[in-house]
Amino acid sequence: MKSILYMIIGIVFTLIILPMVLIFSCDIAPPNIESEEEISDELTIRVYVKESQKIEKISLEEYVKGVVASEMPAAFEIDALKAQAIAARTKAIYQRIKYGEKGHPSHPGAEVCNAVHCQVYKNKEQLERQYSKDWIKNFWPKIEGVVEDTKGLVITYKGKVVDPLYHSTSGGKTENSEDVFTAMAPYLRSVDSPYEKDSKHVESEIVISTNEFITKVNNVYKNTGLTNSNIADSLEILQRSEGGRITRMKVGNETLSGRNIRELLGLKSANFKITISGNKMVFKTRGYGHGVGMSQYGANGMAKNGYSFEDILKHYYRGVDIEVYQ
Ligand SMILES: [Zn+2]
Questions:
Q1: How far is the CA of 289 from the centre of ligand 1 (A)?
Q2: In terms of domains, do 226 and 165 share one?
Q3: Which of 18, 69, 134, 225, CA to CA, is 20 to 30 A from 314?
């Protein structure tokens, strides 16, 4: 009797329960994966195109390819490009969350524009025109690869998508966000950026006449009282940020920031020294860009020294996680 009972249980298990378990587990798994893919494939971004003054809807991942190709030399190391891809994707999603349906106030209806104001985006055709067919052949697959390999990944701080500011070259140390912009972000802290030696922007120099400097300053700032006879005694650097950029500077009777002077003269950064000899002024700058967040040349240097994209992002953005956006 017992063996018949076992046989019946065995038959029931093999014919009914086992298939049910298999069907049940198969049934659950695939739709989940499919729907996840569907969602991330469907993510689109509204890009305001300055030249045509139109808004284009572009798949997020295609957009990221166009930003990576426009914002970083494609010859850079794979892990630097991956870090750039994640930063570019994060920036778009951050703005989408921040501005919602209305879009950015500077370009309503679109969360990003295709220019430096947000981050530069060019599509494949524009890149071919800007570079060459050969460039597309040599580098486009590399760009596609880094974007596909990091698909959906974004940078978060305590679960929230961050504003991943980045710049070309810090000049040795990055900046605290509040020293350059007004907002303090806990993940945008001043950190050392020791691997930038391949950047041609670490140190630069421009020479202008004292006359040109005085004219440019006085055109915008009316109360400096600067003249050729008092200029040598009228300039004094009062304060620098942790990263070395000038936060306060005496210019005659006014107090300006290094950024003010940078904008007036088109300097590469607000980290500079001035020397005056006769009627010539020499501005020696360090770095290129605002200096906040990831240094792109620093990222490439880190990648050359064996650091992964995750190491790079966690170095330049403090206390962050890298996770799939959902
Ligand atoms: Zn913009």
A1: 17
A2: no
A3: 69
Do 129 and 82 share a structural domain?
A: yes
Distance 282 CA to ligand 1 centre (A): 33
Taking 80 as the threshold, does the pLDDT of residue 208 lie above it? yes
86 and 163 in a common domain:
yes
- Does residue 275 lie within any of the structural domains? yes
Q: How do residues 140-193 score in pLDDT, each as one tens digit?
A: 999 999 999 999 999 999 999 999 999 999 999 999 999 999 899 999 999 999
The alpha carbon of 121 and the centre of ligand 1 are apart by a number of angstroms equal to 11
How close is the Cα of 170 to the center of ligand 1, in Å? 23
Q: How far is the CA of 111 from the centre of ligand 1 (A)?
A: 7
Other beta carbons within 10 Å of 135: 14
Q: Ligand 1 centroid vs 99 CA: distance in angstroms? A: 12
Range of the domain at 262: 203-286
Domain-embedded: residue 24: no
- The model's pTM is 0.84
Position 191 in a domain: no
**Res. 14 pLDDT band, cuts 50 70 90:** low
User: Which residues keep their CB under 5 angstroms from ion ligand 1?
Assistant: 113, 117-118
**Are residues 175 and 218 both part of a single domain?**
no
Residue 141 contacts residue 74 (beta carbons within 8 Å): no
Distance between Cα 112 and ligand 1 center (Å): 5
Distance 120 CA to ligand 1 centre (A): 9
